Amino acid sequence: MTSIVAVTACPSGVAHTYMAAEAVEAAAKAKGWNCKVETQGSIGIENELSAEDIAGADIVILTKDIGIKNEDRFKGKTIVRIGVSDAVKRSEAVMDKIAAHLEKATA
């Protein structure tokens, strides 16, 4: 089963951080994939990804609107960078592109 991890953060660190997390998680689960999302909001890091979560991930999604803390822990992983607004409004399309990429990689 495909496994996705993501980190969402927005410049203000409030609503869009959490809206993006919910949208990414819902879109991944709609594909039948495992998904865990860490948020880096105004109250700090929540639902922090473990080394095991990251090691088991096929794809890492990072929002690109502001710098992600501890980004070096994803070294060597396939990373998809998206804007917070795309995470909120276009998560299904992002997951479709990831699925196409994964299909090519295993073909």
From TrEMBL:
Keyword annotations from UniProtKB, A to Z: Kinase, Phosphoprotein, Phosphotransferase system, Sugar transport, Transferase, Transport
Gene Ontology molecular functions: kinase activity; protein-N(PI)-phosphohistidine-fructose phosphotransferase system transporter activity; protein-phosphocysteine-sugar phosphotransferase activity
Protein name stated in the entry: protein-N(pi)-phosphohistidine--D-fructose phosphotransferase
Pfam families: PTS_IIB
Record field: transmembrane: none
PROSITE patterns per the UniProt record, alphabetical: PTS_EIIB_TYPE_2 (PS51099)
Matching CDD domains: PTS_IIB_fructose
Coiled coil segments of this chain: none
Catalyses which reaction(s): D-fructose(out) + N(pros)-phospho-L-histidyl-[protein] = D-fructose 1-phosphate(in) + L-histidyl-[protein]
Family annotation (PANTHER family): FRUCTOSE-LIKE PERMEASE (PTHR30505), FRUCTOSE-LIKE PTS SYSTEM EIIBC COMPONENT-RELATED (PTHR30505:SF0)
GO biological processes: phosphoenolpyruvate-dependent sugar phosphotransferase system
Signal peptide: none
GO cellular component, one term: plasma membrane
Class in the EC hierarchy, top level: transferase
